[in-house]
Design a protein that fits this description.
This protein starts with a helix and ends with a helix. By secondary structure, the chain is mostly helical. α3 runs parallel beside α11. The radius of gyration is 21 Å and the shape is globular. The model has no long low-confidence stretch (mean pLDDT 86). 84% of the residues lie in helices and 0% in strands. The longest helix is centred in the N-terminal third of the chain and has 38 residues, at 53-90.
Length: 392
């Protein structure tokens, strides 16, 4: 009986999701888990360090490795890899598809490693360029550079994790990749909870490495099950990679502007006192506003993407899938935006109301959340529209 229970449980975990609604439901459920863990992470940071300058230093340090990751590898995997790889699968060229996937992962690791090494070596110089004001002290800048060097190790590991997720989503496996992604925040929580008494704010950076390792490990069994075996391939000019290069440049350009936003905000805030505290409060509001975008926008868009990729030659089916997903997003995101706008202060207090989170920080976070709510529908729809573009 116990054996049958475990077999049935395993079959559910390994089951493919062949329609958008079932895939979106699983992604939404795992996104709720991920967002809850993300909010717990923020709450733990507030409870441990307060809405303080030191937490702002950690937040700013994390932006630069994340920006590099988004520009170098995330754009290729999120927008170009799945359509190209799906084409191999639908044309019964799975082995060639696996070779292309290995090639892309190898090239991504090499390119990211090159730029990461430059960022690690010149971290103090780069950080000072983008923090021209006097809001951060010299000791803050030293701490920021040290944190950046640790965080970038986690981002390096995260490349493998996000690659596995895209690979499995191409096979219509959404549960394991979504659950594995949620464990990243769990790793940060573990790091803060157990290591903060010994290493302070460095615990969050070490937690990122733990989370990235969890992201990889949880996906390895299913990656093996679909038959993928990584074989390093250093062909930068293979036809499939050239096709991906052609597809990713608009996405990379868009990501460049998108990543420039937070960095410019840091630069502007560096001229104000308590730069770290102000930026951390902004990031708290952004995290709350992003939760429904991830839950609804990213979940439905991720579920629709493989389907849209396979329907690009059948435009009538493509239109039906796109418009149905578009309508579902609006139906769900608009009421949540209004709810966040009206109940902004109670929501902020409920989520972040630790003893060290004072009332002025609560009010400022609520005001920022109200402004960000005005664009939630557009941020959610962007996930679908951009993926539909790349599916074509």
């Amino acid at each position: 009986m116990v054996k049958n229970f475990f077999q049935k449980s395993l079959s559910i975990l390994l089951k493919q999701q062949t329609n958008i609604l079932s895939a979106a439901f699983i992604i939404m459920a795992m996104t709720i888990l991920s967002q809850l863990l993300g909010l717990i992470k923020k709450r733990l940071l507030v409870a441990t360090f307060g809405a303080s300058n030191i937490v702002g230093v950690y937040d700013v340090a994390s932006k630069f490795p994340d920006a590099l990751f988004q520009l170098v590898i995330a754009a290729a995997i999120s927008s170009a890899f799945i359509p190209v790889f799906s084409n191999y699968l639908t044309s019964n060229r799975e082995k060639e598809g696996h070779e292309m996937a290995s090639n892309l992962l190898t090239v991504g690791i090499i390119v990211f490693g090159f730029f990461a090494l430059i960022l690690v070596i010149f971290a103090p110089f780069v950080l000072r360029i983008f923090n021209p004001g006097s809001g951060f002290t010299p000791s803050d800048m030293t701490l920021m550079a040290n944190l950046l060097r640790i965080i970038i190790v986690g981002q390096f590991l995260f490349i493998i994790g996000i690659f596995f997720s895209a690979l499995l989503q191409s096979y219509n496996h959404f549960l394991i990749p979504a659950f594995a992604a949620a464990t990243f925040n769990l790793g940060v929580i573990i790091g803060i909870f157990f290591l903060s008494p010994f290493v302070g704010i460095y615990s969050a950076a070490y937690g990122g490495i733990i989370g990235a390792l969890c992201y990889i490990v949880f996906q390895i069994p299913l990656v093996k099950k679909v038959g993928f075996g990584f074989r390093p391939n250093f062909s930068f000019t293979s036809p499939s990679l050239i096709q991906i290069y052609k597809l990713i440049w608009p996405r990379t350009l868009a990501q460049g502007f998108f990543q420039l936003g937070p960095i410019l905000i840091v630069s502007l805030l560096s001229f104000s006192p308590n730069t770290g505290r102000n930026y951390f409060i902004f990031d708290l509001a952004l995290t709350l506003a992003f939760a429904p975008v991830a839950l609804i926008g990213q979940a439905i868009a991720q579920a629709a993407f493989p389907v849209l990729s396979r329907q690009r030659e059948r435009l009538e089916d493509f239109k039906v899938t796109f418009l149905t997903s578009f309508s579902q997003m609006l139906y769900l995101i608009l009421p949540i935006s209004i709810l966040f706008l009206v109940l902004r202060i109670p929501i902020v207090r409920l989520v972040y109301g630790a003893a060290q989170f004072d009332w002025p920080a609560t009010v400022l976070t609520g005001r920022l959340l109200a402004i960000l709510c005005l664009s939630l529908f557009a941020q959610a729809l962007f996930n679908l529209v951009s993926r539909a573009f790349y599916a074509l």
